[in-house]
Structure formats: C-alpha cells, structure tokens
Write the structure tokens for this entry.
Amino acid sequence: MLRAAADPLIAEADEWLVFETPDGSGEFRNRYVKTQLRNLLDGPFLFLDSDIFARRDLSEILALDCDIAAAPNHSREIFSEQVWDQDRATLDAMGWTTGDQVYLNGGVLFFNDTVAARALASDWHRRWTASSASRGSHRDQPALNSALAACRPRLAILPDRFNAQVIPSPEVAVDAVIWHFYSSADRPQWTNFDLLVRGLLEGGKLDSVEINRCAALRHPWVGEGIIEVSLQLAALRSECAQFKREHASLQQEMDKILASRSWKITQRLRDIDTLAERLRSGLITPVGGKKRI
C-alpha cells in the first residue's frame, strides 16, 4: 500500500521485511508479528510503537547488557497506577500473575539476541495467542508481563525519559528522549505530534524542518498551560507516593514487632497497665462499687 501510494516513508527505511500473518484485523496482525518479532529477526533490536517520537540518540539503550529492557507502564512510580483496568481484567480472566514491583509498557522494547530473550518471546506469543482467542482483545501487555514473571530474563528497567508516556503522565515529557503519545482517533489533538500526523493523513508531505522544530521543543504540547498544571499534579503525586512508601515501611515494622516473641511475652503486662490506667481514670469501678482514689 505504501509503495502504491509512493509514500515518502519508504525512503526512510534501509530495509523492508515482510512476514505472513493469519487473516484478521489490523490490530490482530500487528500484535501477531510484534509478540514473536524476537524470533523472526537476527541480532539485537529496538521495537518502537508507531505513536513514538524519538528526539535524540538511542544508542544508550542498544548498549544495555540485558535480555530485555522496557519502561514502567503509564510512566508511573506506584505499581497499582501502572496496571490498566483492562489489563487487570485480562490477567484475572487468564489466571496469570505478574511481579508486584513494576508493570512494563510494550511501546518501547529492547530485545537482545540471547537464549533467554528468545524463550521469553516464545512464551509471550503463546500467552498472547491464548488471551486473544479467549478474550477477543488483542492487547499484548498482560501476556508480556506474565511471561516476564514466568521466564525471569535479565531485565533492565528503562527510565521514563526513554518512554515518556505523555498522555497519562504529561510531566515526564520535558526534555525526554522518546515521547510516547498513546495515539487514538478519539483523543483530542493536544500535541504538535498530533498535528504532524494529521497533516500526513490529509495528504501532506514529510516536512523535515517542522519535524526538527518539534523535536527541539522541551515538551510536545501545543500550549504551556497543560504542562504547568501537569507539573503541579506530578509534585502532588510524588508526595502521595512518598507517603505510601513510608506508610508501607511503618506497617512492615509494626508487623515485625507484633509478631516478635518479646511482644507476645509482655502482652499480659501491657494488659495490666491498660487496666490500671482505666481504673485511675474512673472508667472501671472496682468490685464493691467504690472507686479508689
């Protein structure tokens, strides 16, 4: 289709590879190839979603010593905020488990050419095929994260700057290496990337000057207001995350104390102290009906 339309994108690729897929929707065929891409290609590679805008050199990712590298989903720090409701529904329906420290986004994936990386890809594709047939949904992240938990490859967690998911977390866009837009026809067009894509879809041509101008911006938003509010929200979210971490740490320490042998041995003494305090305060009347002073 690109060749028939003489699309200028053709000239941007050094090589084109064609893989056969079963019949199905575009989303199905896309994920069918994506989930087994590691076993279709030779050598290390970096997978990027089509709604990615790479602004700077990516060689730092390609130099990682790991089997696979990816960034937290939604560019969020707290695990519960990384797992989308629909992903959770698929995980529960399929009876899959994931780790509880990080839930990864599948939009930027570095795969090394190792035995462990290929084994992970095989399990990912197997799980995705099962969930796609069972659920009728072609999302690949539940299968990816459950395969990671099962296969346990050497995993490198990419910082947000290498997959700044600007829709759920606009604040991470500032000076990021990669902007990830979660593009959708139903979403309002708030970014310069949206405007570039719309121009191409309406018959425009690739404009390297405009692309470079957008890449040089500190953030992708058309106006300044969104990023200013987002930074304020990010600060509040960071404070909440710190509070949750401190609360969890205190809870763990309290659980250790309550489970300790010394705590159990001294329980009777604490009960006596509590009873004595209630007697002194008049909350309990001694036998005989007279309060002691």
Observations:
- Residues 41 and 113 are 9 Å apart (CA to CA).
- The beta strands are 45-48, 52-54, 68-70, 108-111, 155-157, 164-165, 178-180.
